[in-house]
Amino acid sequence: MNILKHRYLFFSILLFIFIYVSISIVNHYVFRTYALDLGAYTNALYDYSHFQFNDSTVFKNSAENLLADHFDLYLILISPLSLIFKGYTLLIIQIIMIPIGGIGIYKLFNQSKIGLFACIYFLSFFGVFSAISFDYHSNVIASCIIPWLFLHIKRQNIKVSVLLFLLILIAKENMALWTFFISAGLFIIYRKNTKIKRLSFIFMMFSVVYFYLVISVFMPYFSNTDSYHHFHYSSLGNTPFDALLYMISHPIQTIKTLFINHNFSINGDYVKLELHLFLIISGLPILLKNPAYLIMLIPIYFQKLFHDNIEMWGIHNHYSVEFAPILAIGIFSVLKDIKKEKLRHILIYLVILFNIICTIRLMDNTVYFSNKSKIRIYKKSHYTREYDIFKVHTALNHLPKDAIISSQSPFVPHLAYRDKIYQFPIIKDAQYIILSDFESSYPIDSLEFKHKKNELLNSNQWKIEYDKEGLLILKRS
């Protein structure tokens, strides 16, 4: 790609890479990444790069194949890179893939000026920023492949389209539901093109079969309980089939659930409303002009807003990133067809402006509480902690590389590239325990944390190896 010809794209990507690094890599360095999920996934990279399955013991007392928790095959594919980049591997991959997704959008719009705006919309979308501020997740990578799938389908490059489709599927088990609806939308968009329509139908059918096999056969096979763990939609039933029947038989209640605090979660009354407002302000209503793109968003809405966990409902973490490619492609596909040039330009600039306003609002103030220090790159608090970060890193780096460690969550990702590491309070055969009063006591409450810590200090089995900067390192006697 000629840099001079595409200099605005080039400098836009450089700017956003700088922002993403300032969020993601800084968060990791200052201990704002956690055992779940970066620590567990980094430990999986270690295992996969050493040709062994991961047993989930980072966060589970009983060993269980990590594929029973999420059927994520990206970690296997990425694992060789971890031999070089260690604990930063997944964050680097995630940062690189987002601009690659943006370039796909740019090329989809024939490398035009409107393609540049669509790319900037994607790169600045609030769901991308919230995802980049919260560890690593493979659905971010899959979302960045979507524009390239659209591009090669448009070019009728069947072989590459099939490869990209399969790459999206293997990101996580729920991707198959998304690809079904994406394919349904493409079927409508290209309804006059027999070749693409046939391919879209094949993708739809394959998505259904793959989804069934993964959650009913593969994941139960790897599970200790012979079951699928992640159906957390009790308002709809106990299985995906129950959910489908409920939605068909209770359409009004189903639609109502998309907007209400359906399980009466504390502080959950306006979380869904905030998501809807963010999406509306970001340009979602423009898709009414081409509802095929709205169809592609159906599973994203449903998997978020019907979930039992309030954290899924809102605008935080990685749970909104899938909106980004569909909105960027759909909105600007509609806008580019507006014949009145002045009106088209005004709408494009307004969409970009309001999209950025939503992202700024994400950083500033939201309905559901989140640690804003993770994303406010313009604040000193983003780059500092209550303790000397460098000294803590130095202490952790002195631990033996092959030692078995039990650690409080924020330290796990920095120590996870080893054979055995546990999230405290799991201890088992650990040789070292890492604790800090400055960090969250998750997954136990503060009182239990204090009690367990005192037990360890009063035990003859452990001696203090390091106790400075609020960091306590215990070594088994």
Descriptive labels:
about 475 residues, mainly alpha, single chain, about 55% helix, 21 helices
Instruction: Please list the strands of the largest sheet in the order they lie side by side.
Output: 2-1-3-5-4
Query: Which class do the helix and strand fractions yield?
Result: mainly alpha
Number of strand segments = 5
Mean pLDDT: 95
The portion of residues assigned to helices is: 55-70%
Number of helices: 21
What distance lies between the first and last C-alpha atoms, to the nearest angstrom? 60 Å
Task: Tell the overall outline.
Answer: globular
Radius of gyration over alpha carbons? 23 Å
Strand percent estimate: 5-15%
Low-confidence stretches are: none
Which series of helices and strands comes N to C? HHHHHHHHHHHHHHHHHHHEHEEHEE
Oligomer: single chain
Major β-sheet profile = 5 strands, mixed
Description:
The chain has 477 residues and is mainly alpha-helical. It has a domain at 70-374. It is built from 21 helices and five strands. It has helices spanning 7-29, 35-49, 74-78, 82-85, 89-108, 113-124, 126-132, 138-154, 158-169, 175-189, 194-222, 240-249, 251-257, 271-281, 292-305, 310-313, 323-336, 341-364, 389-397, 412-415, 446-457, and strands at 405-407, 421-423, 432-436, 462-468, 471-476. A five-stranded mixed β-sheet has the order 2-1-3-5-4, with helices on one face. A hairpin with a 2-residue loop joins strand 4 and strand 5 (471-476). It starts with 6 loop residues before the first helix and ends with a strand. The model has no long low-confidence stretch (mean pLDDT 95).
